[in-house]
Design brief:
Elements (H helix, E strand, L loop, with lengths): L13 H18 L7 H22 L6 H27 L7 H8 L1 H4 L4 H14 L31 H8 L3 H19 L7 H28 L4 H24 L22 H7 L3 E2 L4 H6 L6 H6 L8 H14 L6 E2 L2 H17 L4
Parallel strand pairs: 1-2
Helix pairs in contact: 1-14, 2-3, 3-4, 3-10, 6-8, 7-15, 8-9, 9-10
Length: about 375
């Protein structure tokens, strides 16, 4: 399906959308608050960057030695890298970090700095995932390797019977695959569906992707090989470990918010017909978890409040806990199921159950 074939119905569900918008806007107006992140995210950016840069410099200049300590530094770098992406880059690329569009663009480049592509990320995440959440053929977050089945509307293979076991072994390699291959594959795919124009625009995108990846590989792998006493094998091993930390963290947080037994997977409407209301769709296809876990909320950039994020992506995540009561009460008023798993572990378990359900038979 071409993503543009899925149309939302603007004539239904508007009462919920208008009401929740008005109440959230009133929250900020009455308290004279900015919807952006401001200094709180600047502090977080400095903390996460330090977790990434300090161990890197210790490794680069040979301050830390010994296999165990070296690998520990790479692991800490992975924690910092994931934190930069989840808590800083994510807000910036949604224009939620600052009132300055230029500052948001600069901070959004964190994705390029850590080996990805901010341009591809925006198309995949902001345009396709946030608009067509859980819609097979339109939500690009559902488009994984053939070994994984994330939607009941995807093709079923016998191997999916065991995905609830092996998926956890594949998740750690997701960002590593993005660095090596996936950004190019997605860029080409977005050209085929019209999000990127063929010709100069596509070439510019691929040139930009390549330049940033060369910069990334240069400072993260080549420089340590030149200036440190670490063996090349230890550097490569540490690099892979770092990305395994990031990939697994990303997968647990994002998958546990959408690929769940109680989330909905809307089917593409028949030709000439539309789907439901966009805001209602976001509540039906998304789930929250661990509202009371302040450390997780801080580190994960509020992405345990995914419903709030999907309804208000340009509002900084630092406000999600405060507006969650408004969204939950309004959802209940309009008969919508506001899903909130009590803990992060319970959300992960629910995701595992959904993987098993999708692997049982083609009809699930």
């Amino acid at each position: 399906m071409h993503f543009s074939q899925f149309k939302f119905d603007r004539s239904t569900g508007q009462d919920f959308h208008k009401t929740v918008n008005a109440r959230v806007n009133a929250y900020f107006t009455e308290r004279h608050l900015s919807k952006k992140g401001g200094n709180a995210i600047i502090v977080k950016a400095m903390a996460m960057l330090s977790l990434f840069i300090v161990p890197y410099l210790l490794l680069l200049f040979g301050v830390v030695e010994g296999t165990a300590m070296v690998l520990a530094m790479w692991l800490i770098m992975g924690i910092g890298m994931a934190g930069m992406a989840l808590g800083v880059m994510h807000d910036a690329n949604h224009d939620a970090m600052s009132t300055s569009a230029r500052f948001n663009r600069i901070m959004g480049r964190i994705m390029d700095f850590i080996g990805g592509s901010s341009r591809v990320w925006k198309l995949q995440h902001n345009v396709l995932h946030h608009t067509y959440t859980n819609v097979e053929g339109a939500d690009d977050d559902l488009r994984g390797p053939a070994l994984l089945r994330f939607s009941p509307h995807q093709e079923y293979l016998p191997v999916h019977r065991y995905q609830y076991i092996y998926a956890w072994l594949l998740y750690p390699f997701t960002t590593l695959i993005r660095v090596i291959y996936m950004d190019y594959a997605r860029g080409w795919h977005y050209m085929t569906i019209g999000l990127v124009k063929k010709g100069p625009e596509l070439r510019k995108l691929f040139l930009e992707i390549t330049a940033w990846k060369l910069f990334y590989i240069g400072y993260i792998i080549v420089l340590p090989m030149v200036f440190s006493s670490m063996s090349p094998y230890l550097i490569i091993g540490g690099f892979v470990l770092m990305h395994m930390v990031v990939g697994f963290t990303f997968a647990l947080i994002f998958q546990s918010a959408h690929i769940l037994p109680d989330a909905e997977y809307p089917e593409v409407p028949e030709e000439g017909k539309t789907g439901g209301n966009w805001a209602v769709h976001q509540v039906q296809t998304t789930a929250n978890f661990a509202h009371g876990n302040k450390l997780l909320t801080w580190y994960a950039g509020g992405l345990n409040y995914q419903i709030e994020h999907h309804l208000f992506p340009t509002i900084s995540h630092i406000h999600y806990p405060a507006i969650s009561d408004i969204v939950q009460q309004t959802s209940a008023q309009f008969g919508l199921n506001y899903r909130n798993h009590p803990t992060f572990v319970s959300a992960i378990v629910a995701h595992g159950k959904m993987l098993q359900k999708l692997g049982n038979s083609p009809g699930h």
